[in-house]
Amino acid sequence: MNMQVEIFEAQRSRLISLCYRMLGERDRAEDAVQDTWLRWAAADQGRIEDPAAWLRRVATNIALDTLRAARRQREVYVGPWLPEPLFAAEAPEVPHPFELAQECELALVWAMERLSAKERAAFILREAFDASYAEIATTLNATEAACRQLVSRSQKKLQKTGPRFDATAEEIADLSQRFFMAIQMEEYDKALDLLAPDAVALSDGGAKARAARRPLIGPQEILQVLRALQDKSRHEPGWSMRVGRVNAKPALLRYRFDQLDSVTALIPGPDGRIAWIYIMRNPDKLGVPQPANRNAQANS
Question: Which of 127, 159, 191 is the last residue of a domain?
Fold first, then answer.
């Protein structure tokens, strides 16, 4: 492996993490990193003082261009657009290209859709990669003062989104277990008490799977839909569920005849109750991981 390739490969996982946070899609993130490699391979290496910063700058600007095009497509997307889930590798010893990206919560990737492209880039570079304001300014072709304002505005916008971004895996696992157990046992009053008054549920079917085409607002509306899904699964064969790790946090994986049908993730709000529910049903975004152990599944 020559030095040029070695330097790039040492930064690849960080670049993929950066581009996934920018774009919320695996394929687009990988394409952006591949384009970054092409520019790196063609660059005059002797003129690059800080390869890591150079690669971050190039990847960010490629992702910015990609994001602008992607958002035009999302304007005509059928129903809510949600970021793609990242599943933990079945074999931990095998390197996973999205290992670092998995640390980014689905709720945060979704919430960053409210930011402008430059706000998103500035926030990610500062908060996730601890880039200096001088580096951010060079990347975005702006002044350091303007970049400080971008980061500040981003933080304020994200604080208003509802879900918390600091919930631990243990807190989410406990909340998920209580909520889904209550629904399975048809103890709907208990499930209702676990939902925050302003809870929001979003489902993404991408016109390829049945899903609500607008956000579900409030405990009553959310529970009505989840209850209907539970009733349906009781009257149809082949349904099973298991807990998996999605974006490094527990999530419920629902299968139909061993084919992944949906991923459901919960995020608590400030009061500890469920503030945000993510339901992915678009088969193009699921990646279709198969159950590792049939005996570990719990029939719904």
Answer: 159
pLDDT at 56 over 70: yes
Residues 244 and 265 in one domain: yes
Domain of 43, CATH number, reads 1.20.140
**pTM (2 d.p.):** 0.90
Element (H, E) at 253: strand 249-256
181/255 same-domain check: yes
Sign of dihedral through CA atoms 184, 167, 214, 190? Answer: positive
Q: Do 117 and 28 belong to one domain?
A: yes
For the stretch 226-262, what's the b/e string if a residue is b when 16 or more beta carbons lie within 10 angstroms of its beta carbon? beebbeebeeeeebbbebbbbbebbbbbbbeeeebbb
Quote the domain boundaries for residue 205: 169-299
Given a contact cutoff of 8 angstroms between Cβ atoms, the answer to whether 64 and 116 are in contact is no
H helix intervals, the chain: 3-23, 26-42, 51-74, 106-111, 117-127, 133-140, 144-159, 169-184, 188-193, 219-234, 283-286
Residues 181 and 210 in one domain: yes
Q: Which amino acid is at 162?
A: G
Burial class (CB in 10 A: 0-12, 13-18, 19+), 61: middle
Least confident of 9-23, 210-224, 229-243: 229-243
Q: Which amino acid is at 79?
A: G
